[in-house]
């Protein structure tokens, strides 16, 4: 962190602030692929696709979380540590300017909070459900499309959720997916 | 008979006293839950603010293509209405206020020639509208006291779907806003299209623009050279339902806090009334007992008097008899 510019990350879910603090970089998945946000990033508004979000803390710690879709907003050259909406001001509280990343995630978990066993079970059941749907999909092709379609979408989504959860809990070495 | 009346009153007092214990307990439970509900409202605020900021940013970045997702539709022929009430009663006028506002809205829409599709939250709403033969497209129950985000998402998905499929032109929501511990007000807000954050809409849209915090230093300063990924128009398509869903969640949270406040107030009043009744009936009962005692004394005295005069008569008679 030689740069004077600071990068603050706030990960917000509808029910609480999941993570808030300083970082050196944040990696997240958008529609076009993984992007890395460093201090001084251009202002950005975009969607976040289901995937693992990785935040590198200045102390060298890595925070990983499973994100199940949402939005990201990057503000550049904003005053950090300003007493707005009660977010935690980082230690030191240098009244520096820098970039602020706000991640709005409808559903998200910190890697440490994920129940791996449960995710594994969910993964398997989603896989078998998908296989079942794929099997029955051919035989009942004459039926109205909407319902099995919805079910398929839902099954795929739950599979993806389980995958992302497991991915988030994996060792940082296997971060690239 | 006097003794009977006393027994009846005593029984009634006992019954009121046990009711009072229940209302008191409900009051305390509601009071303790209000604090938690308020905490949840506060915890949900950052997400709402973040969402409002993104909506603003996108709206500014996409002046032309906002289309039917932003602003107020000019011509409305079909609307979806979401009415947010409670699962339980015993909360004073809370539910009634929402129902009345909903019915007023439905009548208003009908007058303007728009067909409404009604969605409700809360068991009470389900019962009320069924009794009135107002067709309800879908009702959700079991979440009014402690709504989670998954509940909000479920409700929002159902209510917003007709708009996304282009079957309705507008989605409105009637719910109680928790303005403060003392003030709750039933309000109608537009969920979709999103209220244009650029326009100064004093009515306040899905987000609390009237809140000083919402349009604070972060919201009021658009940056002008923001990158969008994907394009604003496409982004808005995914954003709009999510923003509306956030508004539904906020409304559910506020409604739950309002419901609990209304219940606490109603139960406090009920407890007070029970106290009054106990006092009143105790007085009547005491008087009845006093009356009964007085009557008894009178009877005894009267009886004794009668006996004594009887004795005298007897003596007279005896005297007469002996004389004979």
Brief characterization of the structure:
The complex is a heterodimer of chains A (177) and B (324). Chain A is of the alpha+beta class.
Walk me through the structure.
- The complex is a heterodimer of chains A (177) and B (324).
- With 177 residues, chain A is α+β, with helices and mostly antiparallel strands.
- Chain A folds into two domains: 6-112, F0F1 ATP synthase delta/epsilon subunit, N-terminal (ATP Synthase, domain 1); 114-174.
- Chain A contains two helices and ten strands.
- In chain A, the strands form two sheets. Chain A has a five-stranded mixed beta sheet with strand order 2-1-9-8-5, with no helix packed on it. A five-stranded antiparallel beta sheet of chain A has the order 4-3-6-7-10, covered by helices on one side.
- In chain A, α1 (116-139) packs antiparallel against α2 (146-169).
- The longest helix of chain A is centred in the last third of the chain and has 24 residues, at 116-139.
- Residues 82-94, 139-146 and 173-177 of chain A have low confidence and may be disordered.
- With 324 residues, chain B is of the alpha/beta class.
- Chain B has a single domain (27-270), classed as Pyruvate Kinase, Chain: A, domain 1 (3-Layer(aba) Sandwich), CATH 3.40.1380.
- Helices cover 60% and strands 12% of the residues of chain B.
- Chain B has a five-stranded mixed beta sheet with strand order 3-2-1-4-5, sandwiched between helices.
- In chain B, α2 (94-111) links the parallel β1 (78-84) and β2 (115-121).
- In chain B, α1 (2-61) runs antiparallel to α5 and α4 crosses α5.
- The longest helix of chain B has 92 residues, at 232-323.
- Chain B is elongated and about 125 Å long.
- The model of chain B is unreliable at 200-222 (pLDDT under 50).
- The A-B interface holds A 10, 12-17, 30-32, 42-47, 70-71, 73, 75-76, 78, 82, 84-87, 102, 104, 106-107 and B 40, 43-47, 49-51, 53-54, 57-58, 61, 148-149, 152-153, 213, 216-218, 223, 225-230, 235, 238-239, 242, 245-246, 249.
- β5 of chain A pairs parallel with β6 of chain B.
